[in-house]
Amino acid sequence: MEKRKAQRKPANFYVSIFHDKTLCRGVIMNLSESGMYIQTQECLPVESEFSIHIPLDMFVSSKETDIILAAKVVRLVKADDIHHGMGIEVLVPQSNYTELVENHRVHSEMLKIA
Length: 114
Hints:
alpha+beta
């Protein structure tokens, strides 16, 4: 049974995670308007709320330096008792994040056609 609000698309974006004055790093492996999966060995507990910073300079020249999102951990992924990533709910999608997801979706679809 699918619980996601929106279909995820594969991705590969570096991300910074800020929680209680601590910085962690990860890679967004898939994303949608309402969530994402972040691969990281520095997992936060389920229900933790934190901010995600996606550097915009990876995509375009922009006056903005990061997309900053409020997020919550909804699940942890582990294998052999080691955490490898987190399922994330985006609490308040920002317009620049929604635009990033849509542009990434269009680009992914174009690659399938080519």
